[in-house]
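Schema walk-through. Below, the input block comes first and the output block second. Nothing else is stored per chain. Lengths vary across the set, and this one has 516 residues.
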Amino acid sequence: MYSLLLVDDEKLELETLRDYVDWNELGIGTIYTALNGKEAYSKVMEYQPDIMITDIHMPVMNGVELVKKLYEEQVTTKIIFLTGYDDFEFIKVAFSVEAIDYILKPFTIEVINSAIGKVIQVLDKEQVLNQSVKVLEKKLLQSVISCEEEVRNPALEQFKKLKKDQPELLQYGLVQAVGNTESIDTESLENKFAEIAYAVKEEGRITFFILYFVNFLDSAKRIEKYYETAEIPALFLYSAQKHKIEDLYLEYEKFITCNNLLFYEDTYAIKEVSRLLNPDTQENLPVEPQNTILHKEYYKKLKDILQKPRADSNLERILELSKEYFKEIKVNRQERNFVMEEAAFLLTHIYDTYVEDNIALKEGLPLRGQIINSIYQVINEEELESIFFNYLDYILEYQGRNSRDYKDKNEYIVQCVKNYIITNYANIITIESIAEEIGLSPNYVRNIFKEKTGITLTEWITDYRLEEACNLLKDDKLKIKQISFMVGYENISYFCSVFAKKYGLSPNEYRNRYIH
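--- output ---
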């Protein structure tokens, strides 16, 4: 769907044009209006509409002056002129400023449909061309950051040729999101954040090429906020300085080196690459496995227990030793792959000892291969520990070590989350506050809730609040602002926006249509 700006100094004509046509059927999703050229200029610069239909004769700034000024700013909005003069001179003026078409007043729906159809054909062709070029550029950039010189150099030269008219776009900053990439649509991110020139997806990470003139930390924070809002766990790296395109592969190699240095950082942490690699700031980085001894003591005890004949009391001891084991790992900062190998060994042996021969228990737990896969896909120690202990907790629960009535521990967790939301929906709710209330990690709560309900926590909270809002709208004595506060929205404009997005109506319209 494209966006449209309508400009006319006659308010009645402007409103008629806005309401007269079924714009949605023509492929127009968003419509802005302006009463003169000056106002139109401001709205074009702010909203960047795809199409503008503007009257030629207007006070303050006429249509031709408006378009010339916009083209000076290199605005790409497509122009259709609206005029009451069927005069060759006006037509010549219109096309001298590269208007695609003009409409004579009084207009008909057929004429408008035809003019909009021409513009959309142009926009569609440009979009296809731009997408094709962008796909090529992204493929070239993947080669540009390659460690293989024979791959990198030809791609570098070809990319430079594509950008010969835009030499300023031969330098970028880098931001990298480390984590599962399956649910990320890179094209959506490129469209959402103007500073992202390209987003290149690889297994386990997405590298964002950021336009050179922005603050790269600010950009990393914006991307992180997107991930957190979408409840997609990740860790983030950024470069503090811009880099010429021929030097990007060197910076990219630093990013790859730093991927393994993020293992003990909190989920959604943002780290600057050069600082991570600076020897003066490396006191908290992972150490070589042979440099620590204490954690091996707990690891050996765990192995010894798992190799003995099974006894129910052993599981309690395994839980106790596991807590000490992970405590020592965090203190000594063991290297990531080393820790995952040990965790995979321990959990698979726990599976073989307690789960393999128990059909009922196997139904509620991942299989042996799934355990290993989940361990090697974690982004940090926090997530690994969560997987490990939730696995043990499930087995303990099955054996009747707690008083819960739920056979599926995760269903119990989901119900606890829902109860908390139902009790606190009028207040500020965060994943951290929920996790703290039920004594689990935020990542685990987030993932289990989505797995069991099929929607994110944020979506469930929003749905519940809006359902309550619908009930409150039945009371005519309550104002919309009061209802907004009562269901947890301090900003009434945001409440109305969220409500309209879900129901297609404003709260007032909903009240009038369904309640009165």
